[in-house]
Design a protein that fits this description.
rod-shaped; about 375 residues; 60s Ribosomal Protein L30, Chain: A; alpha+beta; five-stranded mixed β-sheet
């Protein structure tokens, strides 16, 4: 605001006022010369001019009201910018506390991201308000230009009518000063809008920086979990006896459904129960070393081949794949794995590894996928 005040002090309006007063004096001299000739039309001209000036005063009153509303809107926008700055400062303090304590989890990161989204929404709303202020500014400038044109027209009428009383001249001068004041206020409003736009650009840059920092923190958590995932998959392969049909696909360990379940059933076989017990023991050994602030989850995904199943218990492959995943999760919970670290999902036949229609492809698609990931 001090910079804006210095800018106002730095603008010299005096030459403009001198030119305006010179032009007004010339008009007065001319009017005095023709005053004697136009005396007989003075009464009617003054009456018409009074009505015109009353209309102009009403227009100026309406313009003053609109400017007052504009100033209130600008003060509201300034207050919202201050609140947004305070909110962003609070978010920055929370991020620093998370980095120092090394206790940020994916859930906390998601909360910060949600906060940032809220800030972005508020910034978008503020931008919309600024755009509205710009539109209002343009409207005010148009109205000021129209008012200036109207004043010029009134002056021409006064020249044609060859009469202007001293009182009318004083009123015209007052209107000119008010119009100059309106234009000055419009200039101040434009400068304030530029400052608000610059502040918004700084906020956008800071939001981008926070987003990058959050992504880096999340990537660090994912890298930490990848180390334990590799160890878990290595031990799991040893537990399953290095079977060729049990393999690692990307970040998932794929096990044939026949290793754990009979055909078209969600009842775990005796051999499958033994395999799951060894899986639970391996999972306990690996997760014992995982830091408490790393929020991990073991996903169990059930998949089937595309051949349909229609039984009373399993109307479709959705129910069969989901029931198998749930059966595995329940057994792991019974074996001592915390339920909050387990997830069961059924995908039916809709995510095949092999899209062909053959016995080999169907066997590859009937599978249980195990994924150690973050929440």
């Amino acid at each position: 605001m001090r910079a804006l005040a210095r800018r106002r002090r730095g603008i010299d309006y005096w030459p403009g006022f001198v030119d305006a007063l010179s032009a007004l004096l010339m008009v007065l001299v001319f009017l005095l010369l023709v005053f004697a000739i136009g005396q007989f039309v003075l009464s009617d001209a003054i009456s018409g001019r009074d009505r015109a000036l009353a209309g102009l005063r009403a227009e100026l009153a309406e313009l003053a009201r609109v400017l007052s509303l504009e100033q209130d809107a600008r003060r509201s926008a300034d207050a919202r910018v201050g609140e947004l700055s305070a909110s962003l400062a609070e978010a920055r303090d929370q991020r620093e506390a998370l980095q120092l304590a090394l206790s940020g989890t994916e859930r906390a990161l998601a909360g910060v991201q949600a906060t940032l989204e809220t800030r972005e929404t508020e910034l978008a709303s503020l931008s919309a308000d600024i755009a509205l202020l710009r539109e209002l500014k343009a409207q005010l400038e148009a109205e000021a230009a129209a008012l200036g044109a109207a004043l010029a027209g009134r002056e021409q009428e006064l020249v044609v009518q060859t009469e202007l009383a001293a009182k009318s001249a004083a009123q015209v001068e007052l209107l000119n000063r008010q119009l100059a004041a309106v234009r000055e206020q419009l200039a101040e409003l434009g400068a304030a809008l530029e400052l608000a736009n610059e502040e918004n650009r700084r906020k956008d840059i800071r939001i981008e920086e926070l987003g990058r920092e959050l992504n880096l923190a999340l990537a660090s958590k994912v890298q930490q979990l990848a180390k334990y995932r590799s160890e878990f998959f290595g031990r799991l392969r040893e537990v399953l006896g290095q079977r060729e049909d049990a393999r690692i696909v990307g970040d998932r360990f794929v096990v044939p459904s026949e290793l754990l379940f009979p055909t078209a059933s969600d009842q775990i076989s005796a051999d499958g129960l033994a395999q799951l017990d060894r899986l639970a023991a391996t999972l306990k050994a690996v997760t014992a070393d995982i830091p408490e602030d790393l929020d991990w989850v073991l996903r169990i995904d059930g998949h089937t081949d595309r051949r349909p199943i229609r039984t009373e218990r399993f109307p479709s492959n959705w129910e069969l794949s989901a029931a198998r995943a749930i059966a595995i999760v329940k057994h792991l919970v019974a074996a001592g794995i915390p339920a909050e670290h387990l997830s069961a999902n059924g995908f039916g036949e809709y995510q095949p590894l092999d899209a062909r229609d053959s016995e080999e492809a169907w066997a590859a698609n009937r599978r249980i996928e195990i994924q150690l990931t973050n929440r």
